[in-house]
Amino acid sequence: MDEVIRELPKRAQEKQTENKKYFAKLKKKPPKNLDYVMQELHEAEFEKTDCLQCANCCKTTGPLFTNIDVERIAKHFKLKPQKFIDQYLRIDEDNDYVLQGVPCTFLGADNYCSIYEVRPKACREFPHTDRRKFQQISNLTMKNVAICPAAYNIVEAMKKKLPM
Ligand code: SF4
Ligand code: SF4
C-alpha cells in the first residue's frame, strides 16, 4: 500500500487532462443511471479496500467540522464546544472549521481513528464517490484521486463503465 500511495499523485497527474475532459462532459450530460452506477462502483471498490492499511486521507488532508460535528465531538470529550474548538481547530480561508494540522490529531499510529464513532460527517463520507449527483463534485474528486487510491480506482472504473 505504501508504494501505491507514493505513486498516486504522479498517476493522478498523468490522468488530469483526461479526467478534466471527462468530468466536463459528465457535468453537461449526466447519465440517468449515474447515482446507481456510482453506488455500485463505490461498494465494489471499498469491499476490497482496507482503509486501515492506508489512512492517507487522515494523514494528508483534514475534514471540515460542521457545528453539529463540533457539538457531538466536544460532548464525547466532555468539553464545551468552544473549548474543543480552541484546542483542536482553526478557521480556514473558506471560513470553515478545520484541523490545526495534519496528520489528524485523532489518528493513531495503528491508523485507527480514536473518535471513530463520533468522527466528522466529512470523514464518514470521504471520498464521496457514492454521493448523489456525483457530477457536481468533479473539482473535489479530481483532487481526491491524488490522495485516495480507492477514489482513483473508482474514477478509472467509472470512465470505463460510463464512457463519454
Ligand atoms: S478513504 Fe481512501 S485515502 Fe482514506 S483510508 Fe480509505 S483508501 Fe485511504
Ligand atoms: S477524525 Fe478520524 S477519520 Fe477523521 S481525519 Fe481524523 S483520524 Fe481520520
Features of the shown structure:
three-stranded antiparallel beta sheet; binds iron/sulfur cluster; Zinc-or iron-chelating domain-containing protein; 164 residues; 2 domains; 54% helix; mainly alpha; Puta_zinc/iron-chelating_dom
Describe the structure.
- With 164 residues, the protein is mainly alpha-helical.
- It has 2 domains: 86 residues, no CATH class; 57 residues, no CATH class.
- Helices cover 54% and strands 5% of the residues.
- The chain is built from 8 helices and 3 strands, in the order H-H-H-E-H-H-E-E-H-H-H.
- A 3-stranded antiparallel sheet has the order 1-3-2.
- A hairpin with a 5-residue loop joins strand 2 and strand 3.
- The chain is globular.
- The model has no long low-confidence stretch (mean pLDDT 97).
- Bound molecules: iron/sulfur cluster (SF4) (2 copies).
- The site of one iron/sulfur cluster has 12 residues, from helix 3 and helix 8.
Please provide the count of β strands: 3
Strand line-up in the sheet with most strands: 1-3-2
Could you state the oligomeric state of the chains shown? single chain
Radius of gyration from the alpha-carbon trace, in angstroms: 17 Å
Question: How much helicity do the residues have?
Answer: 40-55%
**Quick check: average pLDDT?**
97
Q: What's the end-to-end separation, in Å?
A: 31 Å
The total number of structural domains is 2
Structural class: mainly alpha
